[in-house]
Amino acid sequence: MKAIYSAALSAALAWSVALPSHGAQTWTEGVNYFLVQPARATNVAPGKVEVTEVFSYACPACNIFQPTMHKLKQSLPANAVVDYLPAAFNTAEDWPMFQLAYVTAQVLGVDQQAHDAMFDAVWKGGDLSITDPSTRALKSRMPSIEDAAKFYNQRAGVPVDKFVATSKSFSADLKVRTDQDLLVAYKVDRTPTIIVNGKYRLHVESAGGTDQLIDLVKYLVAKETK
């Protein structure tokens, strides 16, 4: 398996350039998408198909991928259910803290209302930025869970002490452990990665571009619907 990595910002920028659509492209297993073996059961209702983005708020490629993710969500059929799986494998860029912040927000039921704003807080000079704007180097002091708690207080009205306490709870710890197990089971080696219905893994590179990724996810959702 490849070494796990977060795509470099320059490479991520290249992803944002849409390539021509595949149209009648025949997708190839093992090239464009990969089987998850064994497949993992999902929590969606019968007849629904789960589409999961593996991401980190501190991942530059994930931030650039957000317009594509929005476009994907809008293009999926009604039976598709989109969810998110936070990765933590890049400790240098504070990913474990952002993973914990996301699962804490999930436990508190405020994850989705602040999802886009969290990316902005990291990448548009907000309080959760991981880089120094003057040098573009990583900050010597990375954002803490207390900093994330202040963000969710401002965006979702969650008291800071409640957010911090929840981050230390059994529910949050269990969710982190479950997510870590899923990342291993899915053999995720980069972010962003898309998992379809616990069975298929793909990413921008394997699909051949951002537009192609949307087409491929729709193809796999239709395949699972049948």
Task: Explain what this protein looks like in three dimensions.
This protein has helices at residues 9-15, 60-75, 95-108, 115-123, 145-156, 160-167, 170-185, 204-207, 210-225; strands at residues 5-6, 34-35, 49-55, 80-86, 190-191, 193-196, 200-202. The protein has 226 residues and is α/β, with parallel strands linked by helices. The protein has one domain (5-11, 52-225): Glutaredoxin (3-Layer(aba) Sandwich), CATH 3.40.30. It has a five-stranded mixed sheet with strand order 2-7-6-3-4. Helix 1 packs parallel to helix 2 (60-75). The model is unreliable at 1-23 (pLDDT under 50).
Outline of the structure:
Helix content is 45%, strand content 12%. It has 226 residues and is of the alpha/beta class. The protein has a 5-stranded mixed sheet with strand order 2-7-6-3-4.
Sketch the topology as an H/E string, one letter per element: EHEEHEHHHHHEEEHH
- Estimate the mean pLDDT confidence: 91
Count every beta strand, where a strand is a DSSP E run of 2 or more residues.
Answer: 7
Overall shape: it is globular
List the domain count as a whole number.
1
Number of separate helices: 9
Strand ordering within the main sheet? 2-7-6-3-4
Q: Gyration radius, to the nearest Å? A: 17 Å
**Uncertain residue segments:** 1-23
Helix content: 40-55%
What does the main sheet amount to? 5 strands, mixed
- The helix/strand class is alpha/beta
Strand content: 5-15%
At the first level of CATH, the class is Alpha Beta
> Mind telling me the CATH superfamily name?
Glutaredoxin
- The name of the CATH architecture is 3-Layer(aba) Sandwich
Distance between the termini: 31 Å
Write down the CATH topology.
Answer: Glutaredoxin
Oligomer: single chain
